[in-house]
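ERR on first pass: missing label on line 2. Operator R.T. fixed the label and resubmitted. Corrected input:
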Amino acid sequence: METIRQIPILISKEFLLEWRSKYALGGILLYVMSTVFIVYNGFIRVAPPTWNVLFWIMSLFTSVNAVTKSFSRENGNRQLYYYTLADPTAVIFSKITYNSLLLILLNLLTYLVFGTVTGNPVKDKGLFFLAIILGSLGMAVILTFISAIANKAKNSATLMAILGFPLMIPVLVSLIKITANALGVITDTSVNEDIWILLAIDAILWALAYILFPFLWRD
Amino acid sequence: MKHWWKILGAVLVLYALIAGLLIPLKPGILEVAPERTQWGNTISLQIKAYNSHFQEAKELKAWLKLDSTHFVPTSHIKVLSNTRLTADFRLPIHQMEEQSKELTLILDNEIDGYSLLPGAIQVTLSDSTISRGFLWSNDLGRIHEPQGLTFPYRNILYETIRNLFYHVPLWFAMLILLFISMIYSGLYLKSMNTKYDHAALALTQIGILYGILGLITGAIWARWTWGDWWSFDVKQNMSAIAMLIYLAYFVLRSSFEDDEVKARVSSVYNIFAFTTLIPLLFVIPRLYDSLHPGNGGNPGLGGEDLDNTMRMVFYPAIIGFTLLGAWLANLAYRYLRLEEKHLEE
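pass 2 clean. output:
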């Protein structure tokens, strides 16, 4: 019960932190914009299959940038302070939830800007948004967890890329397949199955992060 | 005899090497010329076979088969060498409407047994309608089973079918080793005893060695069957990524100074890594078209591709490579323990 009570407080703390350091959020927004414009200048007219892959590549880099700081921005003493106050499962749960919301927001923004600038080839909007939500959940779990691991080591920025990118591939590969359906690039009768698989991967990763984080946390 | 499993592992791997490389392939048909003809013609097929003994065989027979009740027996066979012969066939006028049909070539003799080549010759509609009175036969008569121990003969695969005893068991053994490694990581987190972390590290090292060998044997196999060392097959790509995930494990280990934190964090990562390995190797390849058997609509192993002779080598090879891997991991583990002891002194 105590854990559940802590979660909303910790989530609102994350929002507050983000709001107080506006430069971080602003930096990510500028990052999204500039990537979209670089891609636009390179391609001008983007064919749907390329659009699909480019979207997720942009999403990947934006997400890594957004989540990397999630543990490193509160260092040393402050983490020790949380440790005395909060339950580790509440900490990881609130971080993942906050990062999921952040990534959904950033991915929608990328979609909005990219879609406006290069033309919007998405035919099945519902499926595409579902993919964005499931993808953000999966990426948030993996990246939050990896940033918790990398935070324990030196050179955490390099480690983040080395550990994070290969682990993201199962999620990204199934996402690209689902959104290819939403763009009408391929028509697949088993797209429901793909969604269930992605959901299953997300659920397993959530559960693992939840079980394993208490071991990472204590020092 | 507490080392029985090491001896068993070595013996089984040795057995898989010797039996897997020395048992010959079942005789089969390599190619046939010409590739097409017309109904009603008399043709002379030049047949090139593999591992066959035409000169020693006494009861040579050949048929062209349309379906299970329509056969054309050969009218004359001329043996050129042990692997080459020419067989003459008199094709009847075909009564059916279809433009062209593919016929299966069947060869049979008492030494090699029977061999088939589906789609050996394509027969198109005749220009003339004059029947020369050549007729279908509706029975094969008696055919021979192959003699002795042989591996199946498969077009495209040919001799590379033997790689099944090395490529596949290496991946099986890798998964088993990495799975045990994950369990040791779990044990470490439960007890915080360094020896479990060392066991997990040793098992991962050998598991990744096996994984790399699996990639190499796979690339060799791909070169001779799919045409390229790297075919960008989804399972090839995902296996390479799986290797990256585990190489990151070693990078992670090297970035800690404190041994206790190193063991704890890398145990956590190891469990996370093995869990993502399962969708990478078993779920994602099913979503995409893969050239691997059992993926993307291709039939899995089984049936005639994995006959009893193959099973006799394949299953021992899996056990052998796993035990050998466990032995190697055991050595790596003891090395790590000694190193630790040495540092303490």
